[in-house]
Amino acid sequence: xxxxxxxxxxxxxxxxxxxxxxxxxxxxxxxxxxxxxxxxxxxxxxxxxxxxxxxxxxxxxxxxxxxxxxxxxxxxxxxxxxxxxxxxxxxxxxxxxxxxxxxxxxxxxxxxxxxxxxxxxxxxxxxxxxxxxxxxxxxxxxxxxxxx
Length: 148
Prior knowledge:
Blueprint: H1 42-52, E1 59-60, E2 67-68, E3 70-74, E4 88-92, E5 95-97, E6 103-106, H2 109-113, H3 117-124, H4 128-143
Antiparallel strand pairs: 1-2, 3-4, 5-6
């Protein structure tokens, strides 16, 4: 195989060195730096933490009413402008059975609601947005925060 020789044996001419310091402004976050694209207000953070207390012991699900451990679920995604205040409900998660080699025994309301809130509300006949407003009202009553 014939190879083309290098054109010049001299060193490359160097220009001005790159300026170090502030990184380029980005539209998307660097995963290595952490953080969130959708910042929470102090009230959002406080209500999120308050609702997390419900996940530590069984309560009735806002969707089906089943008494179990719950998780917090956004009705409108944060990427679509959804906040925490008046936008989060407590829904049951999927269940697996150890006797059946960890096969899924119940999908859970959170999995059924994810990314399809309006259809899920029509299926179960419960107004989840009213439940979310109720959670926010209870949080405001207990903590005295976030009064509008």
